[in-house]
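Incident log, structure service

09:12 report received: a user says their structure output differs between two submissions of the same chain.
09:20 pulled the input from the user's history:
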Amino acid sequence: MTSPPALPYGVRLAWQDLPRSVLGWVEAALGAPVVRADSQPGGFSPGVAARVVTADGARGFVKAVSTAQNPDTPDLLRREIRVLRSMPASAGVPLLLEAHDDGEWVGLLIEDVEGRHPTTPWVHAEIRATFEALRGLASQTAPEEWPALEDELRGDFAAWSRIAATPPRDLDPWLAGRLELLDGLSGEVLPRLAGRSITHTDTRADNLLLTPGGEVRVVDWPWAAQGAGWVDAAALLVNLELYGAVDPLDYLPLVRAQGATDRDVVGLVAGMGGLFTETSARPPAPGLPTVRAFQVAQGRACTRLLRRFGGL
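09:34 re-ran on a clean worker, output below:
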């Protein structure tokens, strides 16, 4: 029996390796020298991700990276800065306190939320709390300047057509026999992704914090868009499947309650599966040595979930 995967961990830059200019920015923003910095290993960013405490007890969460770690990650942080600056306060998302961008280094100083990632394999109470948090986010109207989710995913959800043009030798035979169907499902769902709700679009355990009070806060927002209110809840099913121990289909009623049809869920999972199948076959990403393996695992989780839906 295969053990469920652990939370994804990248290779992070250490706090003490930040340049003095960035360290000084953090301390100026918090008003005192940093006396403690605890690196947070979850996720893939090659930059710093640390909870910090100053000499006078102020706290914050710092993310910082330069192109030396990965050429694309600074722009992701720039996008997250724009998202957090425009995020409605009523969304309950950790607040952006300060931002730094000197053209080389990009940094965010965010409200430090006391909490931990959900247990994996997932447990029922934390799943229910996560669906409740996603329901609350879906009730919030996204800022008009955010991109439309159906446009953001149009290219990604065409992955099956590109895979069909040049099928990899190791492609799962079940997928290989259904490439046209999967491409059709992925394209069909795109108009259904449209909406005005806040969508995170990357709902997985390492992007969630469970507070001591049992509430879930959603973190890491570079991919935010305006879209249908059911999208994040449906995407969570893939993460439940990834870690095992629960049956994701038991939670379909919670996704339907947010406006999704089963056809919508199948289309979204098909689109995600194509994206992960395609990206996992790309060359290693600079500074991100573990991301391709996690994309493989997510693609396989999508495939397992798709195989359980009738008619495929």
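09:41 both user submissions now match this output. Likely a transient worker issue. Closing.
09:42 reviewer note: The chain has two domains: 15-110, 124-307. The CA atoms of residues 232 and 280 lie 22 Å apart.
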